[in-house]
Amino acid sequence: MGKCSALWNASSRPHSADKIYQIVESSLKTPCATRCNSLYDSIKGLLDKRNVLSQIMTKLHLPCFRDVDLEFLDEHQQILAPIAVALDRLQSEHHCYYADLIPTLHAVNNQLKSLQLMNFRHCSALLRAVCAGFNRRFANFLNLTPDVNIALLASMTHPYFKIRWLPATLSGEHERLAVM
């Protein structure tokens, strides 16, 4: 992350920003303290410019990214992707309803569970921390406790979601499939 920070700091200076613009014909996205997804977006932006990243770093007289650095950034981005996409969806100015909350949280939980099956070389501790924090923060919504009944009702009465997002054990599908 140190090399990323050095690059982002350099990109905020006019002379360095001109050099970057000459190479990629755009500016780099930089992390912002007030936007939750900005780190994810910034890393994704760097990985999208992977083929010219060494040229940028050389031109700015910064240490170049090694393959292991790019592997780390790629894993970091994969782990943060489900939460970043969900935040973008839930913070949308259009088409965002209370009914979206529980299905989105369950989708993120399923995506994080599938990521746990992957063998991350560099960011396995980050994945464990993200999963633990997510489950701790949204336990009521994931376990569908009585104090989230209003959100549950909103999701179940939404024409798109209905009950198709419920786990099979809760929606009655488990019993129906067992009979077949």
> What is the CA–CA distance across the termini?
53 Å
Largest sheet: none
**What string, H for helix and E for strand, traces the elements in order?**
HHHHHHHHHHH
Helix content: 55-70%
Q: What general form does the structure show?
A: elongated
CA radius of gyration? 21 Å
Low-confidence stretches: 176-180
Average residue-wise pLDDT: 84
Total number of β-strand segments? 0
Number of helices: 11
Assess the beta-strand content as a share of residues: under 5%
Helix/strand-derived class? mainly alpha
Structural description of this entry:
The chain has eleven helices and no strands. With 180 residues, the chain is an all-alpha fold. It has a domain at 98-180. Helix 3 crosses helix 5 (67-90), helix 5 runs antiparallel to helix 6 (101-116) and helix 6 (101-116) packs antiparallel against helix 7 (124-137). The longest helix has 24 residues, at 67-90. The radius of gyration is 21 Å and the shape is elongated. The termini are far apart. The model is unreliable at 176-180 (pLDDT under 50).
